[in-house]
């Protein structure tokens, strides 16, 4: 306790301090007697109690009381004097003195000090509580949220201004009314039941409610209701704080409506996309089936035409006749090329074209491409050259078939559109790619023609007087193949100067593969006394083919090569022959795919079960990749597309036929 003693006689101060200390009063005693010191003491430090003499030099005691009341109004002042009469003491009590005691009768001093300190603490507590209450009351009145106080039965005792603004009811209109006056009857009964259950248990309830204003309109509010207890812990009131959330609810409802509308639109779009996707897939399937059927229907008679031409060319000795058959073969190969272009473009357009990477003998592929175009170049009087950079590796990773297709397409165009001069195919290494260039001294193109060069079905000269044929698909396919191999293609051209196509393809060097016997190129069959010796002498072949012309053609082709051929006009007939003759009677089976009674796939599966080691080769006019995959899935070891090329057929039979 900080105790300030105002006494002008030092011995009286010491006597008073000793007296209090001996009676158990623990305090820090501070002694002052000068007016200035008194002012400084009250200004610089809070005091718990002041004991003062009445007669201080130059100081009126009433002035002292006034100063204490101004500076520290809650500090008790007790008069300790030997010269104050009772009338004066009573007057001083009215002016703020807490109590008094005479110096010659200090026995009352300690109880007075204890009582004064206790009453001072209580007064200070009340003052602080009142200040706090005033602050809370001011805050509640000024709060933006509506505040309501009710008794335990829900009868309204007080609301703030924000509550009046929210509901339209004034405090006078609501005081004494039950809070049910605000109910909208839109709340579910279980909400009110949960609210009262929570409050009666002494817990705070939070939630959303729909209430009704004085004018009858409803509003949404977010409510927090808190139980209030007295000093004994008994529930006495409920205080609710309410926030108007009508705008938020309206926005949420609008958002929900928008989301529902958006979801409905999304569902509609998804249904529309699904329907259009299904239709696109149906059209793609119809297109694929149409192309497959078109390929089959064109390749079947074309097989007979080209097959007969190959047989006729080999069996005829006359120069004129052989030239005629050669023209038939050239025309048929041209028609086949057109068909293959259409199929390739359709596969690319449908995203079904696949790149089949493997180890490629790059110089060999380029030499083969030059060889394919050599005769056409010679016939046109053109110089056709191949230039290979020595730094270019021989073995690379890539798709040999597609690289060859790209080069042949470009060489074919160059030869076709060049009347004099020559065509150069060059290959070189460039950092991480290898570069292929096809340059010619042909007609060349202007900028407008170059701009539409890679568009499908378009040609540089599309007039009715154009001199050069073609579908206009070759370069479109070439560009797509280059891009599928992650490469680039560019063209530089000028009218009457020539054209150069430049292709960059990723360069991935590869190790040389181990050569297999079946991979070696076939040499021309030897001749005895000027006659060719068949390459399939003694090979026993069972063939299933429903087309009479193709059946006859197979007999002629394989007969010339010395094969022993057994023919059947459908799969069931071929399997019956196999069952009668036994598994060991044949070295290989050739089967058409599309046949009556039993198709080629069914025949292959039955043979795989009956004679697992007997190889089956599919002969089909369906040239799509899907057909090749179906052939492999049904157990066939190879697939030869129609029109049948005799060299390919012989090579396939020699590769897969069992050794007799």
State the separation between the terminal residues, measured CA to CA. Answer: 125 Å
Uncertain parts:
462-469, 517-530
Strand portion: 15-25%
Based on the structure, what is the oligomeric state of the protein chains? Answer: single chain
The class by helix and strand makeup works out as alpha/beta
**Could you describe the largest sheet, including whether it forms a barrel?**
5 strands, parallel
Query: Which strands sit side by side, in order, in the main sheet?
Result: 2-1-3-4-5
Explain what the structure shows:
It is a single chain. This protein has 660 residues and is an alpha/beta fold. Helix content is 47%, strand content 21%. It is built from 19 helices and 24 strands. The strands form 6 sheets. A 5-stranded parallel sheet has the order 2-1-3-4-5, with helices on both faces. Strands 7-6-10-9-8 form a 5-stranded antiparallel sheet, sandwiched between helices. A 5-stranded mixed sheet has the order 12-14-15-17-16, covered by helices on one side. Helix 10 crosses helix 14 and helix 11 packs parallel to helix 12. The longest helix is centred in the middle third of the chain and has 70 residues. About 3% of the residues have low confidence.
The gist of it:
The protein is an alpha/beta fold and 660 residues long. The strands form six sheets. It has a five-stranded parallel β-sheet with strand order 2-1-3-4-5, with helices on both faces. Strands 7-6-10-9-8 form a five-stranded antiparallel β-sheet, with helices on both faces.
